[in-house]
Design a protein that fits this description.
By secondary structure, this protein is an alpha+beta fold. It has a single domain, classed as Translation Initiation Factor IF3, CATH 3.30.110. The chain has 2 helices and 4 strands. Helix 1 runs parallel beside helix 2. It starts with a strand and ends with a strand. 26% of the residues are buried.
Length: 73
């Protein structure tokens, strides 16, 4: 199952904090993080990699970024 983290309209560090909280509290291994700035996309990607997660895909859609992040076992 995929957990969605909708961080649109929020500035950093909020999207990063929301993603990290989701990783800590969820049993899910796949996350979709939605952000609307380049900076948030980059910061969430770096945070994911530093937490043993893999950014599988980044899609740009309607001035938003949809990051598919997989938690490594």
């Amino acid at each position: 199952m995929t957990k969605t983290v909708d961080a649109r309209g929020l500035s950093c560090p909020q999207p990063v904090i929301m993603f990290l909280d989701a990783v800590k509290s969820a049993q899910d291994t796949t996350f979709e993080v939605i952000v609307d700035t380049e900076a948030s996309k980059e910061n969430v990607s770096r945070a994911a990699e530093s937490r043993n997660c893999h950014v599988k895909e980044i899609r740009e859609q309607d001035a938003e970024y949809h990051l598919t992040i997989v938690k490594n076992p």
